[in-house]
Amino acid sequence: MKESKFDTYFMPTYKRAGPPLVKGRGMYVYDSSGKHYLDFGAGIAVIALGHSHPAIVAAAKAQAAKMLHGSNLYYTEPQIRIAKLLLRHTFGDRVFLCNSGTEANEAAIKFARKWATAKNKNKYHVLSFSDGFHGRTYGAMSATAQTRFQAGFAPIAPGFHYAPFNDIAATKNALSKHAFAAVIVEPVQGESGVHFATTAFLQFLRSYCTARRIALVFDEVQCGIGRTGTMFNYEQHGVTPDMMTLAKPLGGGLPLGALVCKEMFASAIKPGDHGTTFGGNPLACALGCVVLKKISAKGFLERVRHNGDYLISQLHKLASRHPVIKDVRGKGLMVGVELACDPAAVVNECRRKGLLVVKSEHNTIRFIPPLIVSQRHIDIAVGIFGNVIRRC
Q: CATH 3.90.1150.10: does it fit domain 3-53+298-389?
C-alpha cells in the first residue's frame, strides 16, 4: 500500500508524515521501511520510560492475562493501586480516573461548578489564560484561550473568561467581574511553546482563590509526572492547587487521565453526576503503577534534571552560533526552541534525518524526549538539529 493512500482512510484532523511506525525500542521508533528515528517527541510527552520498557511490557502481559475491562460499577485491583500511588505523591484526598487530559479537565470544570453553585447558582464562571491549552472537547476547548482552536465551533460554552498569562493586575481585574467557580492554569504551557508561570503569579492565584472560595486547578497534563524534573511542577513553586489534572505519561502509553482533588470538592459529587465507561481501565492502571514507581524511585528525577540541564546548555551553544534561534527555554526535559521562522520545514527535515521533534505555537519546536534519555542521545539529537538549522 502506498503512503499517499493512507490519508483517504482518516478524517483530516492531523497532518501525518512518513511511513507507518511499526515498533519502538528505548529511545528509538522504527517505520515500515525499516528506518529508525531518535524520538525527542515521546508521542507528545507520553512515553516517559522509553518505548517497550521491559517492566511496562511485563505488566501489560500480566494484566492482559487477568482482565482487560471491568467497568466502574466495580473496583479493580490496578485502580486501587494507582489511586494509592497518586494520593501518596500529591496533595490530593480523592482521585477520578478517566482516559485523557481533556477528560480530566472536563471533570475539573464540572466538579468545581457543582461545588460552587451549591451555595450560589451564579458562581459558575471559569477563568483561564492566554495561550493556554486544555483540550478539544467543548468545556476544555472553551477554557482554551486560543481562537484557532475555537474557530468554526461557536458558540463556545458560556461562563468562560480569559486573562493574560502571568499578568497579576489584569487577572485580578478579570476576577472582579463575575462570580467564579474555578481558575485553571498550566504551570508550564506546552502547546503554546513552553512558557512558564512565575511563582509570583501562582502565589497570587492561590491567595486570591483561597480568599474567595474559588477552586484553583493546575493542568499538569504535559508538565507533570517528572517532565520538568520534579514529580509535579507545582512542587517547584511551593504553591498547592485544589485540583490537578494529569494524563500523557500516566498510562505508560495507554489512555489514562486523572483528576486529583481535595476532599471538599469530592464531597460535592454524588453517584451519577459524572462517569466514564473506560476510565481507569485495569490494563492502563497496571502500566501507570509501573510509571509512577519508576519515576519516583531514588535518583530518577535527579537524572532528569541533570540531563535536562545538559540538553538546554547544548541548545544554548547552538543558539550562540545560529541567529535563527531566538530563544531556548525549558525546565527538566520540557524544552522549547523558538525560531525566527516557521519551524514546520525544520521539523520535517529533522524527521527525514532521523530525529522526531514536535512543533508548537509561536514558531517553537519542543524537545520532549522520554525521561530515560542519555547525554549520548542528546548529542545526537542536537547534532541533527544543528545540521538542519544551518540551512535556514
A: yes
